Amino acid sequence: MSGLAILALSMSHFRSHRAARLGFDGRPVALVGANGAGKTNILEAVSLLSPGRGLRRAGAEDLARRPEVIGWKVVAEVAGLSAAHQVESWAEGGAARQVRIDGKLAPQVALARILRMVWLVPSMDRLWIEAAEGRRRFLDRMVLSFAPDHAEAVIAYEKAMRDRNRLLKDQVTDPHWYGALEAQMAASGAQIVSNRALTVARLLAAQEGAETVFPRAGLAIIDPEGAPDDLAQALAANRRRDMAAGRTLIGPHRADLAAEFVAKGVAADQCSTGEQKALLISLILANARALAADMGRAPILLLDEVAAHLDAGRRAALYDELCALGAQAIMTGTEPGLFDSLGARGQTFEVTECDGQSEIREISL
User: Fold this and answer.
1) Which of 199, 246, 361, 364 makes a 20 to 30 Å CA pair with 188?
2) How are beta strands 84-91 and 300-303 bridged, if at all?
């Protein structure tokens, strides 16, 4: 099975890259170099070929190379879901990010009709022991890989909730002001809840029967207030309590994702650092397998410092799984030796920093 792929990538005034161009052939890619050389910046550039704010969730104005700050641009030739495309993503003059597909302006959501991506970054290593917000965002990113319209449901829900919260803070008691907003929250919320449940089911199914050294993760969505059958009715009944708090206290924005190391029966937040990393990788691989089954092509995987906390055996097993999946995984690491077991099955690029400019060259392992 061949996967979706970035075939050529150009960056202009993006982060540490004044101007750079890389050519890929669809195989896994290893980017090696010292910390601060600009490896993760390349992953971030690729992540902006998908909807949203990218793997660092940075604002468009923060992506411009400094001190110039004249705007930035990322251009890619891609092997997409049904055809080859040229995709451009850019921002200039402090304006919002724009997207062009095959020369025509397009909304960001259109990118999900061309490419699907999943990613893992070091900030996720603490996912299981930090606040629920990060786990919701992690889950919703996986949901988006299956259901591109999920982003629209989340946006509609959050906009209605912001307007409702404003009424609550202003101590507005007239029910007529709340009705339409709560109906919108209920409609969008039902779609969010359904999408999340289907995604968890897909991830669990994708782990069943998979031959992998990475531990199977049990998953559950937990709502601290319970998931009401009729959210609009529950919101109306809860207005007085919400008004006292100054915010909406029930709904899918309060949900949490719980995980368990199934073989040990241990909650993820009680696992060792290495086990938590292995659980994350297991979920990313399950996400990729499920998408490949849906699309007939593997998604693109962005794996930043993926070898951290993995021993040599698990690193080799990871590369074997990526190659068997036919996925273009773009990975970073500080040492070429971290990718020895990938060998000629992938491409390797060395990223160095010289006089404030990142330089990139392809090397052989």
Assistant:
1) 246
2) unpaired
Q: What is the pLDDT of residues 78-108, one digit of tens each?
A: 999 999 999 999 999 878 999 999 999 999 9
Pair 95, 278: CB distance under 8 Å: no
- Rounded to an integer, what distance in angstroms lies between the CA atom of residue 82 and that of residue 296? 11
DSSP string, 66-117: TTT-S-EEEEEEEE-SSSEEEEEEEE-TTPPPEEEETTEEE-GGGGGGT--E
316-328: pLDDT as tens digits: 999 999 999 999 9
Q: Any idea where the domains of the chain sit in the sequence?
A: 1-116+299-365, 128-294
Q: Cα(135)–Cα(353) distance, rounded to whole angstroms?
A: 34
Q: Cβ contacts of residue 103 below 8 Å, gap of 6+?
A: 86
For residue 353, what is the enclosing H or E element?
A: strand 347-354
What's 27's DSSP letter? Answer: S
Cβ atoms 263, 215 nearer than 8 A: yes
In angstroms, how far is the first alpha carbon of the chain from the final one? 25
pLDDT at 355 over 90: no
Q: Judge whether residue 1 has pLDDT over 60.
A: no
CA distance 81 to 328: 14
CATH domain 1-116+299-365 topology: Rossmann fold (3.40.50)
